[in-house]
Write a structure and sequence with these properties.
Blueprint (H helix, E strand, L loop, with lengths): L12 H34 L12 H26 L3 H28 L47 H8 L3 H27 L5 H27 L2
Length: about 230
């Protein structure tokens, strides 16, 4: 009598348990992200109470709106790869990215709520990035210099994956999914660093500067990590 095996399409109890276990993990992770975002929303509101209120066309408001969109795609990509691979290193990275960016998105949502501003701006995305830097801001690279031609308001934000790329990632598994995720997320992080550094050059608001600097620092470090991980999978 030979041992039973699980084949593709197998509906055995063992296969069902594994499939159910993975679904449960995804559900728990999704609930955790919601909890993180709600907590960050509260923190975001409380952290703005002592700051002058930005206007709806300010760099602070534009950054808060655009970086939320950017971060939420980062969460989406991270959750896709967590379900597409069994590699512990990649799954841990995906979880860290998802929780961090969900928390930060919730914090920026809270800023806009506390400022009494709409979550949707009256100008196209990235308009704030075309305006001059200000004296006393802390931007430290090319984004500190005004360059109206560097960005087109309403165009895709720096580093965003296209809908076709997101769908392609959804269809991959294993090392192929890991490689594509790392490629997309390196570019995604580079775009986020560009946006964060742009607001550092255009804001002296303490809470905005603190978050933007943390994005520059943490995502620059993760770019180095992901570059090494990608090289190991080439």
């Amino acid at each position: 009598m030979t041992p039973s095996t699980v084949t593709p399409g197998d509906d055995s109890p063992a296969h069902d348990r594994r499939r159910g276990g993975r679904a449960a993990v995804i559900a728990v992770a999704s609930i955790a992200l919601v909890v993180v975002a709600v907590a960050a929303f509260s923190i975001g509101r409380l952290s703005t109470l002592t700051e002058p209120t930005p206007t709806t066309t300010s760099a602070e408001a534009g950054f808060a709106r655009d970086m939320q969109v950017h971060h939420l795609q980062g969460v989406e990509l991270a959750m896709i790869v967590r379900d597409a691979t069994d590699d512990d290193e990649v799954r841990l990275l995906g979880y860290d990215i998802a929780t961090t960016q969900a928390q930060q998105a919730g914090q920026m949502y809270g800023w806009l709520a506390e400022w009494g501003l709409s979550q949707a701006g009256s100008e196209p995305s990235m308009t704030w990035m075309t305006r001059p830097a200000i004296d006393g801001a802390t931007g430290h690279d090319d984004h500190a210099t005004a360059d109206p031609d560097a960005h087109t308001p309403g165009a895709p934000m720096p580093g965003l994956a296209t809908p076709a790329q997101v769908e392609e990632l959804r269809g991959l598994t294993g090392v192929a999914a890991e490689r594509m995720f790392l490629e997309l997320m390196i570019t995604h992080h580079q775009g986020a660093v560009e946006m964060a550094d742009a607001v550092l050059a255009r804001s002296t608001n303490d809470v905005v500067v603190a978050l933007a600097q943390s994005i520059v620092d943490s995502q620059t470090s993760e770019i180095d990590l992901m570059t090494r991980m990608l090289a190991a999978r080439s």
